[in-house]
Write a structure and sequence with these properties.
Blueprint lengths: L3 H15 L3 E7 L4 E6 L6 H19 L25 H28 L3 E9 L2 H32 L5 H5 L2 H7 L8 H23 L17 E4 L6 E5 L5 E6 L3 E6 L7 E9 L5 E8 L2 H6 L8 E6 L3 E5 L4 E3 L3 H18 L5 H35 L2 E4 L4 H5 L2 H8 L1
Parallel strand pairs: 10-13
Antiparallel strand pairs: 1-2, 3-7, 3-9, 4-8, 5-6, 6-7, 8-9, 10-11, 11-12
């Protein structure tokens, strides 16, 4: 049987012959291919790359069934260097390695700069917008969702049609022209729209990072308006501002192009606010998460004293965790306590007519039960973690492959409860 490497070389040769591109050197590596071709200066090399990747991905996956378990397409990205002096493959490979080293140096510099940044802390407060403000915020979420989907579609189309990878800066530069086509985008703060484009850029960065690390890739997908539930305001005193109130726990969040929103400040903000993320929960509640930059000295002063004691944790099902000291942390089983109520609510939801107001109310009841379970779990885990950190200086936790445990229905049902 013909090998994958030999078949790939044959496909590349056939495509190059059809496009009148002369192959000088061809080298197939385990995870990439080095190809040196001689073509007419006016020939679109990106068109050749697109044909090679498309033909090889389709034909190889049809002939070799083992490849169907891999990525939706066998290729992630490609880069090419054009010369007019007939450079050898070794020279071009040396140039590519040099570019890789420069990228590694950039990432190292970025890591060093990140370490020098001041520590940050996030405060979350409950918001109580008026009915008019809720309508405006929901309209903004819908428009940002449209911008996100449009930016993602533009990136996919540009690469599919012309083999071009668009950048964040390129797409942000198109936003003023988009506002002329859709004037309603002008009602949304510019930085909020830019963040919607930035989310697409981060989604692609995370996709390629997972591919390089051998994880499940998870190609960026389009979002529905219901799933796009947050707005990011990036500059304090420009796109947002926080005003403390006169009464206890009373505060005000000021957003650009919206105005003042009532906010419950259950504790004072210490530090310099940097960004604010306004979020809508499935139950219709609104929160704001304010990221604050703190002084490093203040953080160091609040650190717990050093502790030499260590403890090992073994996570269980009947008991939440066993400690090496002989102690047990009981499992509260919050899901099982709400299981009957959740089943009743879901039955009523399934009986409600689709698209009706009654169905919206029943869906909210189901979301409230899930939210209650999630809040109880988070509160329980935070309390247990805080207790262990205060007692021990080293926590050793068993490395569990939860993905494999979930495949067993008997074990997974106990884990979810």
């Amino acid at each position: 049987m013909q090998s994958i490497e030999a078949r790939l070389k044959q496909i590349i040769g056939e495509v190059c012959q059809e496009q009148q591109a002369e192959i000088e050197e061809l080298e197939v590596m385990p995870d990439h291919v080095h190809l040196l071709v001689s073509v007419d200066p006016q020939f679109g090399i990106h068109h050749l790359m697109k044909l090679i990747k498309g033909h090889s991905s389709c034909l190889l996956r049809q002939q070799f069934l083992v490849l169907k378990r891999k990525l939706p397409t066998l290729w992630t990205n490609s880069s090419f260097v054009t010369t007019t002096g007939g450079a050898s493959l070794s020279v071009i490979k040396a140039y590519i390695e040099q570019q890789k080293m420069s990228k590694k140096q950039q990432s190292k510099q970025l890591k060093t700069a990140t370490e020098k940044q001041q520590p940050r802390k996030t405060y979350q407060f409950r918001l109580y917008p008026t009915s008019r403000q809720i309508k405006v915020l929901q309209d903004w979420l819908g428009l940002c969702c449209d911008v996100y989907n449009a930016a993602l579609d533009e990136r996919r189309s540009a690469y599919r049609i012309a083999g071009i990878s668009l950048s964040y800066a390129h797409q942000c530069a198109e936003l003023p022209a988009c506002k002329e086509v859709r004037p309603e985008l002008g009602a949304v703060p510019a930085q909020v729209l830019q963040d919607a484009v930035k989310r697409v850029d981060r989604a692609y960065d995370d996709f390629f990072r997972r591919v390089e690390e051998g994880q499940k890739p998870g190609f960026p997908r389009f979002k529905s308006r219901f799933r796009y539930a947050s707005l990011t305001f990036k500059q304090y005193e420009n796109s947002f501002e926080v005003l403390p109130g006169n009464k206890k726990n009373k505060g005000t969040l000021v957003l650009a192009k919206l105005g003042q929103i009532k906010m419950v400040m259950h504790r004072a903000i210490k530090g310099t606010p940097k960004t604010a993320i306004v979020k809508r929960t499935p139950t219709g509640k609104w929160y704001v998460s304010i990221s604050v930059e703190m002084e490093r000295e203040e953080v160091q002063s609040k650190r717990l004293p050093a502790c030499t004691e260590a403890v090992g944790l073994d996570v269980g099902l009947k008991t939440f965790a066993y400690l090496s000291t002989g102690e047990e942390i009981p499992n509260p089983r919050f899901f099982r306590a709400e299981e009957a109520a959740l089943a009743r609510a879901q039955r009523k939801l399934s009986k409600a007519p689709k698209g009706s107001r009654e169905r919206k109310k029943k869906r909210k009841v189901v979301a409230q039960i899930h939210e209650r379970i999630s809040n109880r779990r988070a509160n329980f885990i935070n309390q247990q973690v805080a207790s262990l950190i205060k007692r021990f200086g080293l926590l050793a936790v068993e490395a569990l492959v939860v993905r494999n445990m979930v495949k067993n229905p008997k074990v997974s049902s106990g884990m979810n409860r």
